[in-house]
Amino acid sequence: MYPRTYSSEWDFKNVNTKEYTHGYHNYPAMMIPQIARKLLNEYRPEGHFGLLFDPYMGSGTSLVEASVQGIDSIGTDINPLACLIAEVKTTRYDANRLKEFLQFLTERLETYDPRLQGEYCYDHITKADYWYSAENLAKLRFLTDLIDAHADRSFVNFFRLALSEVIRESSYTRNGEFKRYRIAPSKISKFDVDPFKLFIRKVQRNLGGLSAYSTVAHPGRTVVSNFNTIDGIPQQIFKGRKADMIITSPPYGDSKTTVAYGQFSRWTNEWFQFENAQKIDSLLMGGQLKTEFSFRTETIARELEQIKEVDRRRYVEVMTFLNDYHRSIAHVSSVVRSGGRVCYVVGNRTVKGIQIPLDHFTAEMFEQNGFRHEHTYVRSITGKRMPSVTSPSNKKGANMNTMHSEYIVILKKE
To answer: Could you tell me the sign of the dihedral formed by the alpha carbons of 355, 297, 78, 269, in that order?
Structure first.
């Protein structure tokens, strides 16, 4: 079928995954930069290599790595938080101006007096009083107003991104969870997070990453967009060019039952009142259940029939995701030049006790669109930020360990 090569050279144990701007902001299931870097170095296509495309860019790992090597890139994601992270990580800001504004903010924060704060409306925040203390809500609002009122438009998003992490970490949500789970009542009385101090630390950390990124002599140009590859790829984005290479890590399943991108991002998306803040999970692949499916598969037909026999609804959910994934692959294939390569880092999730070989399905779908399978490498997951357990059925207590391996599928367009 599609042979796999088990190799420890892709594990990258004990490496620094926060180089350059990669450490700006947490995000679920981030691809570590060493994978993108190794793929760029060892599997760059023959001939001209000027454009990389990431159709599920997430936090922008592959875009940063392309930029560091002087390669132009285009990335897209329909999650507003992902777009914010990727944009800031691939922007070369004037560090002196950022430091000056940080000093201004620091001085203003020292003048904060809760008695002088007005009444604020938090209707756009779901259950604001449940998730935040009144003190932290007021401090977050004060910070937000300072940034919005005084930051220059050329660097306002740099400070909003630091604030984004603070918004989530100042809430009563559990650490290490992507879904929205409140900490135990016994821990709330001991909860002691100062949004001001946390914000300063985040900005200083990110300034360090920017300093390293600014040493790159000739960075590639980056375009961050928010179109959905399930529906197609706007030709004006590519301006007549074709992608020479794809490096990406797509979702492994629908966001409601695998990695909860929407729930993780909801803190930021709601706070800044981004579009569809509460609907991201339903807009991602597999988010809208379907009754008709357009793909054909031999590689995972047996697994799909097994799931269907056990649970008809879960079968429909899996088929819906795969149908969207198939459509996305067809559209992605159309913008890759002849001789270009695609590299998909995927995981094989388990549904109703049955593992779905998404690596085989990925290779099969690309071969149906004019590609030839070259390699599939298997790597152990050691540093990827994923939940330790998931609840595939969304039933309380019905948890299972998440996957421990990833599959790097490499294909070439004939």
So the answer is: negative
